[in-house]
């Protein structure tokens, strides 16, 4: 867990430039692998989704295809565990790639654009429960949200690399040079929140890579708020 630097007064974060989730950006998680021959169309689609202001698009590379001849250089067992947790929450019998999880709720084959867009539009119409505000302060980020519906929420901090190209030499995609967008490098729970009091915390966020904060029902439930600082 990324360490909390301080619990702040809600009024103490009003200075400096802020990024607010005023329009309720929809979080799209793509579970993908460099070793998956059916993933490149979904990876390309994520490039397009990453350009939208109303979407936070995140690529989580899983490790369960590494055995077929190519070890994914971005894969993290933590992301495989997260995908399995979504499957358990949805009573799904298995996991697969490419899979997009939209808003923490909708599970869609990531190479089917119409299904992805239908789910995205549905989540956009529904909107987020909470507006999240992020403020950079040195090597940390300040996270605030106005209270609303009570519940059991996790506050998660995500870092990602905006783009990287990989020359794949073995496995199903051998000989291809593929470009990946918004490659998640870390995903940490930085706090819990009941939604009834103002949320105000500060967390470590060193470096200049983008920062995403996601509020989500515990046990991989719906995402109820998110914001991004690029």
Detailed description of the structure:
It comes from Yoonia maricola. This protein has 230 residues and is α+β, with helices and mostly antiparallel strands. Helices cover 17% and strands 40% of the residues. The protein has one domain (4-229): Glutaredoxin. A five-stranded antiparallel beta sheet has the order 1-11-8-7-2, with no helix packed on it. The protein has a four-stranded mixed beta sheet with strand order 4-3-5-6, sandwiched between helices. The longest helix has 14 residues, at 113-126.
What's the topology here?
Elements: E1 4-7, E2 18-20, E3 26-32, H1 40-50, E4 55-61, H2 77-89, E5 99-102, E6 106-109, H3 113-126, E7 132-137, E8 140-145, E9 153-167, E10 177-193, E11 199-204, E12 211-217, E13 223-229
Parallel strand pairs: 3-4
Antiparallel strand pairs: 1-11, 2-7, 3-5, 5-6, 7-8, 8-11, 9-10, 9-12, 12-13
| Second CATH tier, the architecture | 3-Layer(aba) Sandwich
Strand fraction: 35-45%
**CATH class descriptor:** Alpha Beta
Profile the largest sheet: 5 strands, antiparallel
Please tell me the overall pLDDT.
Answer: 90
CATH topology: Glutaredoxin
Rg over alpha carbons: 17 Å
Number of strands: 13
Read across the widest sheet, the strand sequence of neighbours is 1-11-8-7-2
Oligomer: single chain
CATH level-4 homologous superfamily: Glutaredoxin
What is the count of helical runs?
Answer: 3
Unreliable residue runs: 1-22
- Silhouette: globular
Helix share of residues? 10-25%
- Tally of structural domains: 1
Terminal Cα span: 22 Å
Order of helices and strands: EEEHEHEEHEEEEEEE
- By helix and strand content, what is the structural category? alpha+beta
InterPro entries: DUF1223 (IPR010634), Thioredoxin-like_sf (IPR036249)
Protein name: Secreted protein
Keywords: Signal
Signal peptide: 1-21
């Amino acid at each position: 867990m990324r360490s909390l630097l301080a619990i702040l007064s809600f009024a103490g974060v009003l200075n400096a430039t802020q990024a607010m989730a005023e329009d309720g950006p929809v979080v799209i998680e793509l579970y993908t692998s460099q070793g998956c021959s059916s993933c490149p169309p979904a990876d390309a689609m994520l490039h397009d989704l990453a350009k939208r202001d109303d979407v936070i698009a995140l690529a989580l590379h899983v490790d369960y295809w590494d055995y077929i001849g190519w070890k994914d250089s971005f894969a993290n067992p933590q992301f495989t565990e997260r995908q399995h947790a979504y499957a358990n929450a949805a009573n799904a019998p298995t996991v697969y790639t490419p899979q997009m999880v939209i808003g923490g709720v909708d599970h869609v084959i990531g190479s089917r654009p119409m299904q992805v867009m239908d789910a995205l539009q549905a989540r956009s119409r529904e909107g987020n429960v909470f507006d999240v505000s992020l403020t950079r302060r040195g090597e940390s980020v300040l996270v605030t949200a106005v209270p609303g519906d009570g519940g059991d929420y996790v506050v998660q901090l995500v870092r990602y690399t905006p783009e990287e190209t990989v020359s794949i030499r073995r496995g199903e995609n051998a000989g291809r040079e593929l470009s990946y967008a918004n490659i998640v490098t870390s995903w940490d729970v930085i706090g819990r929140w009941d939604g009834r009091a103002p949320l105000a915390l500060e967390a470590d966020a060193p470096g200049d890579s983008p920062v995403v904060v996601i509020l989500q029902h515990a046990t991989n439930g719906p995402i109820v708020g998110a914001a991004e600082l690029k």
